[in-house]
Amino acid sequence: MKNLPNLITLSRLVSALALLPIYAFSPMFFAIYTYCGISDILDGALARTLHCNDESGARLDSIADIIFYSVTAFKILPVLCSKLTPLIWCVIAAAALLRIVSYSAAAIKYRRFASLHTYMNKLTGFLIFTVPYIIFLPFANTACMIIGIVAVIAAAEEVIIHAIADEYNADRRTLFVLKDSKGFTGG
């Protein structure tokens, strides 16, 4: 049972790769895509429930997330290019640049790949997950602009946390908590 969360995470990683040969926006694409989203929520919830959440599981989860979002972006990018406005692309670029700064700062400071499971990162992940479902709706550009702004805020928060943190804690939930449940203090 203790390995179940990691097995679910691995299944998400494999499922994400299985999206590559499948036509984007097809029923099969949405079935696998939805499974990936559900498994992302389920693995973390199970890890906490079974008290087996650890650093290696968190790292595996982050890697599976990166692969899932990379494959999804590759699949839906042609549609996004034709639908989104240049201003939205600027916001997306700002979020991506901040994310690169965050990963780079963590790599230098902690000498490892370090992604935080903050509330804002979780919200960003959920909102980004909705894009394939909403991209053909009339309000898609407005929704994508909001998603981009949330992504910028989340990435900026992570950069700040890495800058002020004394040590790495993947489970740091927000910038606004001075001390968390594991005794982590910021700055």
Question: What is the molecular shape?
Answer: globular
Mean pLDDT: 90
Q: How many helices?
A: 6
Sheet of most strands: none
Task: Please describe the structure with a list of short key phrases separated by commas or semicolons.
187 residues, mainly alpha
Polypeptide structure, described:
With 187 residues, the chain is mainly α. It is built from six helices and no strands. It has helices at 4-18, 27-49, 55-83, 86-110, 119-134, 140-164. Helix 1 packs antiparallel against helix 2 (27-49) and helix 2 packs antiparallel against helix 3 (55-83).
Topology:
Blueprint: H1 4-18, H2 27-49, H3 55-83, H4 86-110, H5 119-134, H6 140-164
Quick summary:
The chain is mainly α and 187 residues long. The protein contains 6 helices and no strands. α2 packs antiparallel against α3 (55-83) and α4 runs parallel beside α6 (140-164).
